[in-house]
Amino acid sequence: MSIKVRFFARLREEAGIGEREIPFQPGMSLPEVWQRAGAKGELPEAVLIAVNMEYTRAAVTLKDGDEVAFFPSVTGG
Amino acid sequence: MRIELRAAPFDPYTEIAAYERAALKHGQFGATACFVGTMREFNDGSPVSGMTLEHYPGMTEKHLQAICDQAGSRWVLQEGLVLHRVGQIALGEAIVVVAIWSVHRGDAQDACRFIIEDLKSKAPFWKQEQLQDGKRWVSNNTSGYEFREQKLRS
User: Fold this and answer.
1) Contact call for A76 and B96, based on CB within 8 A
2) Which architecture characterizes domain B2-153 according to CATH?
C-alpha cells in the first residue's frame, strides 16, 4: 500500500528528493502527499501536479499504487 | 507520426529529409512545414554557455503523442515528425524539430504551429541554463496555441 512521489527540476533540487515511496492512506490529499514526501512548507499554488502522468487539480481521489508528480511550469521546445 | 526523444545531438535537416524518404511517397504530399528550435548563446539578458533539458520519462512521450493526435484530428495531415533533445545541449545544437507533411500549406503550417506551441506549454520538459556564474532554471512559460489564437482574434 504505497504511493510513488516524484519531484522534477527546481522542485527536485529544493526538496532534495527525486523520487520516494510513501505509505498510502485512503482519503489522503495532494497537499498531504507533498508534505509526507518531505517537501518543505505548504504545497504552492503554482506547482503543477500529475497523477499517473496526467495533469490534475488539487482535489483528486488517490488510489494505492498511484504515481504523483510535482513540478514547475514546463519550458521545453 | 514519429515522436522521439534523443540524448545525442542530431542534424535537424538530415532527420527531416531521412524521415520524408522513409515515410512518404512522392506525389502524396504538397506541403511541408518545419520548425527547428536551436540552442542560442543568450537569454533574458545573460550569456548562456549550455543547457540541460530534464524531462519526465513516460509522461513526456504520452503528452507529445496526445498533442500530435489532436493535430491529426484537427487538420488533414499526411505525416509528422517530432524530435526533442534531452540531457546536455551545447550552443548551436537543435533542441526540437517539428515537421509536418500535408496536401496543402494551411494544414501543414497550422498543425506545425499548434504542435510546437502546445509542446512548449504542456509537455513536461525543463530547461536549466549554464551561465558564467552558475545555473538557472528557465521560468518563462508560454500559454499554448489556443491562447495565442484567441489573442490574435481579440
Assistant:
1) yes
2) Alpha-Beta Complex (3.90)
